[in-house]
Amino acid sequence: MESLGPEAWEAVRLSLKVAFWATLVALPPGLAVAYLLARGRFPGHGLLNGLVHLPLILPPVVTGYLLLLSFGRQGWLGAPLEAVFGISLAFRWTGAALAAGIMAFPLLVRAIRLAIEAVDPGLEEAAATLGASRARVFATVTLPLILPGVIAGAVLAFAKAMGEFGATITFVSNIPGQTQTVPTAIYAFLQVPGGEGAAMTLVVISIALSLGALFVSEWLARRVARRVAGR
Amino acid sequence: MTLSVAIKKRLGAFGLDLDFEAPDGVTALFGRSGAGKTSLVHAIAGLMRPDAGRIALNGDLLFDAERRRDLPVHRRRLGYVFQESRLFPHLNVRQNLLYGRRARHLRGEGDLAHVTELLGLGPLLDRRPGALSGGEAQRVAIGRALLSEPRMLLMDEPLAALDAPRKGEILPYLERLRAETGLPILYVSHNLSEVARLATHLVVLEGGRVLKSGPIGALLSDPDLVSVMGLREAGAVLTARVAGHEADGLTTLEAAGGRLYLPRIEAAPGSELRVRILAQDVIVATEPPRGISALNVLPATVKAIRRGEGPGMVAQLDLGGDTILARVTQRSAEALGLVPGRACYAVMKTVAVAPADVGQGLRG
Q1: Among the residues of chain A, which ranges form H helices?
Q2: What is the ipTM for the molecules in this complex?
């Protein structure tokens, strides 16, 4: 192992930033989609389920390419986004966050959906008979009860976002300081002679961050589970 | 306060077609499992949408298929006590009790102090639902429904998940509720003993239809309903006043038809009780029996007699204005000449009356 250069530190910092924003932005739609899939009965249920899980099954490079086609400067979404809002995603860290968020989305939805399915709908019915509207039932009964699942899902999504490689490098490339995350940095170091040392250091940091995230999520989930179990 | 229901609903091969009214007081919905009781209560609460018909509470439409009115569950203001308590596990007892007040934007704690006292919840307020016994949890669930200030209370087999001692623990609370709050209650049960203790009005369901509805006394003593009630369960209710407690452990009651001796009942002299007498515990004699251990021998008149399936018959007896049922064999009925108008004696064993079958009278 050797001490890290500024380039590697930048990759660590950027990875944390990308994973943080990817998780945060994916959470609200993740909750909504998980709730729809768990409790909703509507035509297209299966289609939505398939769509959500697509990034898990598709080769990441395909997802990245589709993102590039959609959100690139000339993309059908990217062009109006830049023209109207001045938001540009291609080859920027925000694009890396989008790619990571989409790749992490299925994991997030899965964990939250399982948690929602474990909540007794009878409790939600009881809350409604006591005068609580649908939104209030969700906020005061469903959400507190699924919190352990939401936390577990968020940590999983964060870890996935930290490790995202294929879609990221396809969509936003591997620009140091801009879009170079830990995995793409490791890849870059391994491409140059004598880069193994720096790569190894990043590998160790990767393992440490992942383990840390797992421990934190376990601890949080256990705490919250105890609280919602009613003891 | 009157709840009127006239609905139709198709549920697979089974169909509901119900029409009845529930007046003030406690209306029991009685029927075997699968008679449609829970579906009916779900429809009233708004948890299930009927195909046709209307549901109104005091003229206020909760549901009307023709006018396309379907008030959402949370705006019906009906308290619902489920079979399982359904307490919110992440909230303590006090927060559970006050949940409906917050949801309905009612100020303050309302009747919290009174409801806590009424249901004996004082020591439980800071506990979590996970630390409550089944009976305690169900009392909290009743209190939670009451505190949401409902217009009516729907109770769907609230005691069915409890063992006999826990049931015995809750029944007196329900009797107090009936006496003190005056809140109309729709009480679903397939347990006749509970129904006989609590209800003032009875709706008998069978196969998704209303078989009969009316005041509890008249229906429980209707010989035509014996087969629906169950031969071993059928029995009528006598109203009696406590005359005194005897030194040998008996309690003397004064009923319209005469004196009754029952195993000691914890009730002050003068208080009114409802005593359920099972049809199979009543012996009919045409002469005053002598040398018999049964203490209760009351003069009676045969009002009606019905033949059932098998060797049994059910006699409806008048006891000075009260009506009870007696199960006898056809052979005995013929031998004794039991026909309407026949004077006879109703013989009842003191110890045959179970403590669970003695409840508080409607006027306390």
Answers
A1: 6-39, 45-57, 60-71, 78-80, 93-118, 121-129, 134-137, 143-163, 166-172, 182-191, 196-228
A2: 0.85
